[in-house]
Design goal:
Number of helices: 13
Helix content: 25-40%
Structural class: alpha/beta
CATH class of the largest domain: Alpha Beta
Strand order of the largest sheet: 14-13-12-11-7-10-9-8-16
Radius of gyration: 23 Å
Distance between the termini: 37 Å
CATH superfamily of the largest domain: Dihydrodipicolinate Reductase, domain 2
Largest sheet: 9 strands, mixed
Order of helices and strands: EHEHEHEHEHEHHEHHHEEEEEEEHHEHE
Mean pLDDT: 95
Strand content: 15-25%
Number of strands: 16
Shape: globular
Low-confidence stretches: none
Bound molecules: NADPH dihydro-nicotinamide-adenine-dinucleotide phosphate
Length: about 425
């Protein structure tokens, strides 16, 4: 691996403290980062490195060579004193309003081809603002040096989607609307807005979850087979899928009591629940509805992708009524797993056929430890691999699909701690019915 420096901008913030600094420590201790890697923590205020370590609650045995530096001015000189780096990662753990000025400052400070800018979500608030942000960033650094984060892409079960679909002939030939009845992607949380009230109230669940994480998972679930596994080939296939999506229906809800929470505007109409039906307008998936839901304040937490197959229509069982449909559930979190639902004759009976589950639990199948999503993304940035990062066009296209359903308010309330029934006729496959992961 080439010698690299990592600069965390906004190092005093929540993301740096909870994810980035511990993640880098783990990678370093596991010898996944180069031993001569340098870490700069940057915030706007002056403090010593020891002050910063206390602020960030870094243990005295924090293994990476770390220096605190106030602002961006002087960073070039500081890094020059530390040696020569072929790659310098700037992790912008900053409010989105600071992305463009920060990119300008990094360039003005003299950083060029060696710089990689990691940009966090949210990336824009609609198609126009995302375009504006992309245009402004690309004036400072070319697209190849801009790494937009969607940490769901680095979750193992999401990374496995392409393997599941394209490395298993069992599935590759039946992945179309002749065989698949519907696709469901569901991401529920028991928690409410907690400490993110001000951010969430300006955003809502569609911006917070659907535009990025759920659309990225849908892209990988439904895209055409890429010719190879190169980052740009996969990205092109995802963009094609996104371009073929259309929102057919969308309904939003808000959990009761939301408006009374600290940090929420009185009379807020921000949605905490969104359910969408989408069509995929391409030959593979024409006629196969996609249902997506994301919500806070539910009775359960978890993110799953469900694929429900059509009933068998040939052979000796074709005339049998009520045969359970085959299905696949890809469990993304909290645990990773795959369930394959099969029609199985109940032992001892002649007639009764029930749905049974073959269950792959990652923690049972793979005993070794693997990097969490942020750790994986940090590693990929260090090695310059953009596969798990989101491109400019992807993010703009995803916003374009949703532009008509943003900021429409909510049409029903649901009690906090309950999961609303589908309002669009989606038959969510309940993962918990088949597995207690
Ligand atoms: P914080 O609000 O904790 O802010 C991070 C740091 O940015 C602050 O500590 C502050 O440091 C600095 N900062 C604030 N305003 C400015 C500004 N105008 N210009 C330059 N620096 C500024 O944010 P988080 O750490 O929670 O999040 C960082 C980014 O990551 C955000 O874009 C957020 O949306 C995204 N994100 C965060 C997640 C999380 O779990 N926290 C999850 C997913 C995304 P100082 O005052 O020392 O300069």
């Amino acid at each position: 691996m080439k010698r690299c420096a990592i600069v965390i901008l906004g190092a005093t913030g929540d993301l740096a403290r909870r994810k980035l600094l511990p993640g880098l420590k783990k990678l370093y201790n596991n010898k996944q980062l180069p031993s001569d890697c340098t870490l700069i923590a940057s915030g706007r205020n002056f403090m010593t490195t020891d002050d910063f370590k206390r602020h960030a609650k870094l243990s005295s045995d924090y293994p990476i060579d770390i220096t605190y530096h106030a602002g961006i001015n002087g960073l070039h000189e500081l890094l020059k004193c530390k040696g020569s780096f072929s790659r310098i990662i700037f992790f912008c753990a900053l409010p989105p309003s600071a992305y463009v000025t920060t990119a300008r400052q990094i360039k003005a400070e003299g950083f060029g081809k060696e710089a990689i800018l990691i940009i966090e979500k949210p990336f824009g608030i609609n198609a126009a603002s995302a375009r504006e942000l992309n245009d402004a960033l690309v004036k400072e650094f070319p697209e190849e040096q801009i790494f937009r984060i969607d940490h769901y892409l680095a979750k193992e079960a999401v990374r496995n989607l392409l393997t599941l679909r394209f490395a298993n002939p069992l599935f590759s030939d039946i992945w179309n609307s002749s065989e698949i009845d519907s696709i469901q992607i569901s991401s529920l949380e028991t928690l409410g807005v907690e400490s993110r009230a001000a951010y969430f109230d300006n955003s809502g669940i569609i911006r917070d979850m659907v535009q990025n994480h759920l659309f990225q998972m849908l892209s990988l679930t439904a895209m055409e087979p890429p010719e190879n596994l190169n980052a740009e080939t996969i990205r092109a296939s995802k963009i094609n899928l996104l371009r073929s999506l259309k929102v057919e229906r969308c309904i939003c809800g808000q959990y009761s009591g939301y408006k009374n929470e600290p940090g929420i505007r009185s009379g807020s109409t921000t949605e905490t629940y969104a359910e969408l039906e989408l069509s995929i307008n391409n030959p593979r998936f024409k006629g196969c509805p996609v249902y997506i839901r994301a919500a806070k304040g539910c009775s359960k937490s978890g993110t799953d992708i469900g694929i429900t197959f059509r009933p068998i229509n040939k052979g000796p069982f074709a005339s049998k009524k009520d045969l359970p449909a085959n299905f696949i559930i890809v469990k993304i979190q909290p645990q990773a797993g795959i369930i394959l639902g099969l029609a199985t004759r109940v032992p001892g009976s002649d007639e009764i056929i029930e749905s049974t589950a073959m269950n792959l639990c990652y923690h049972d199948a793979f005993k070794h430890e693997w990097p969490d999503a942020y750790e994986k993304l940090l590693l990929d940035a260090v090695s310059g691999d953009r596969t798990l990062f989101v491109g400019a066009e992807e993010t703009e296209t995803a916003w374009t699909i949703l532009d008509d359903v943003l900021d429409k308010g909510y049409s029903f309330e649901y009690p906090f701690g309950t999961t609303p029934e589908s309002k669009l006729g989606a038959k969510w496959i309940e993962f918990s019915e088949y597995c207690t992961l």
